[in-house]
Amino acid sequence: MTYCCALRLKDGLVFVSDTRTNAGVDHISVFRKLYIFGIEGERFLTIQTSGNLATTQAVIGHLNNHLELKQEPNLYSVNTMFEMAELVGHTLKKVIADVVEDAHTHEQSNYYCSILLGGQIQGAEMQLYNIYPQGNFICATEDTPYFQIGESKYGKPILDRALIYEMPLDEAVRCCLISFDSTLRSNVSVGMPLDTVVYKKDSLHIPNGKRIYEEDPYFWKLSKQWSDTLRRGLQELPIPTDDYLE
Amino acid sequence: MTYCCALRLKDGLVFVSDTRTNAGVDHISVFRKLYIFGIEGERFLTIQTSGNLATTQAVIGHLNNHLELKQEPNLYSVNTMFEMAELVGHTLKKVIADVVEDAHTHEQSNYYCSILLGGQIQGAEMQLYNIYPQGNFICATEDTPYFQIGESKYGKPILDRALIYEMPLDEAVRCCLISFDSTLRSNVSVGMPLDTVVYKKDSLHIPNGKRIYEEDPYFWKLSKQWSDTLRRGLQELPIPTDDYLE
């Protein structure tokens, strides 16, 4: 499986993805699921993928191929983030249709993948899209400033309870990492290392991103302190009234 | 959907179930999914159910019917918790087989339900079983002191991080209620009121259990304080190193 999470907040964008893939429990590998693109000072975008690995790699392959051969439309030629979402969605839909046609099957869902696309083009607003295997998509808003794909349930409560559109980026990164830490502890199909990218609104700077390995001292400290917070928080909760224990 | 959780700890057993059922988003009802049985001073048991509502009610119906007509084996005639798990598993398997036979279909999974059975019989250890639709079952241990059925993922991280076999019952109840609060906030298919039962080891006392409604002042306070704990805990986490934000 996979867990990817992306936030579109007042001050910028935050992306975190795990890197574990599995085809059965005895076939576990590390594959990047977070891809950074951009032209410094002009546009920045990140694509995160979840689902069939061949499909996700084919989508990224086609998008890269178009860039390399300067075939239009491509990620650097489209005018708006909306057109970019359409391009990615169309590419995704076509990859799935082609593999299904070749396999002489009507069962598309084995080849499904979901994509998060976030970024900014000079002169326009930052956007974050959740693109479905059918090629259509939805857009993050102030009311719903985050999307998740893959193994999303374990890490959802902390986002639902703490995340708001106005949250500063450094706090949002911590919130996301806790969401991942919770998922990593409860589901072995999501695994380290993690890829993180933080983009500051209107900077049009292409961040390097950071890969967090198991032994990362900051992540380790975060995880340890969060465990302590929860255990202490639990003990500090009011003791149940007697009727709970009768 | 449903969320049920049961703990078998050093000092006793804790059971919590929600009560929401849905057949589509426009057909939502309140049904009890936690059933208490027992003979004061001799045996205590609780059954929690998740899945097809007709199946779960048929299982409880048959078990009650056997008790009423004093047909053997029944919940009060079996000698051990193991035999009780066999009886409940057999009843479950038969209910599913009968409905499938009558429907002239081989598709069993539409009628599936899962059951948690916990309790104690005089002179023997407390036990907690997770009974599958196939009628077989597994038993909670000191290593894995809890089971969940239904919509289990949202509420799993807090259990994985905080729950231990030695935890006092009043703290375990708080831990369970937080697990439910997290689930309630992230998934509308799990809903109030909640049914809770706490059983003290070797007491052989049949507890009344407590139903927690939306307006329950204790639960409300717990939920509020937990939100504060998480938000404050998040802010107190170490600030990401610069390389996270570049």
From TrEMBL, chains A, B:
Pfam family, one: Proteasome
GO cellular component: proteasome core complex
Matching InterPro entries: Ntn_hydrolases_N, Proteasome_sua/b, UCP009120_prtse
Molecular function (Gene Ontology), one example: peptidase activity
GO biological process: proteolysis involved in protein catabolic process
Keywords on record: Hydrolase, Protease, Proteasome
Name of this chain's protein: Putative proteasome-type protease
